[in-house]
Amino acid sequence: MQIISAPNAPAAVGPYSQAVRTGNLLFCSGQIPIDPTTGKIEATDVEGQAKQVIANIKAVLAGAGLTIQNVVKSTMFLQDMADFPKVNPIYEAGYEGHKPARSTIQVAKLPLGSLVEIEVIAEFAS
């Protein structure tokens, strides 16, 4: 098992790793919209938060030498499922035409009051 720590992604806010590689798989912890330069959630709307989350995912993947094209499974958590039509186009643009398997779940609350969180599993070329 290899721990991934990407310098351009937000630091973990708890006792976990940004990502862990095991074999050809990379399991990325859920990313919330923390701006890595300030360490805070700057965007107040779900669209801005979704854009930051995608940027954070890309930074974690880059820290492991991967891109969004390596993602095989994505799980999106929304505080309000009514935000899905706002977030979905941002997700689609951020994934640059790539369409991994995905689940979307409404939750009661997310860390630090964020409106959206996304976790991914990516695969290294064998």
From TrEMBL:
<dbReference type="InterPro" id="IPR035959">
    <property type="entry name" value="RutC-like_sf"/>
</dbReference>
<dbReference type="GO" id="GO:0005829">
    <property type="term" value="C:cytosol"/>
</dbReference>
<dbReference type="InterPro" id="IPR006056">
    <property type="entry name" value="RidA"/>
</dbReference>
<comment type="similarity">
    <text>Belongs to the RutC family.</text>
</comment>
<dbReference type="GO" id="GO:0019239">
    <property type="term" value="F:deaminase activity"/>
</dbReference>
<dbReference type="InterPro" id="IPR019897">
    <property type="entry name" value="RidA_CS"/>
</dbReference>
<protein>
    <submittedName>
        <fullName>Endoribonuclease L-PSP</fullName>
    </submittedName>
</protein>
<dbReference type="Pfam" id="PF01042">
    <property type="entry name" value="Ribonuc_L-PSP"/>
</dbReference>
<dbReference type="InterPro" id="IPR006175">
    <property type="entry name" value="YjgF/YER057c/UK114"/>
</dbReference>
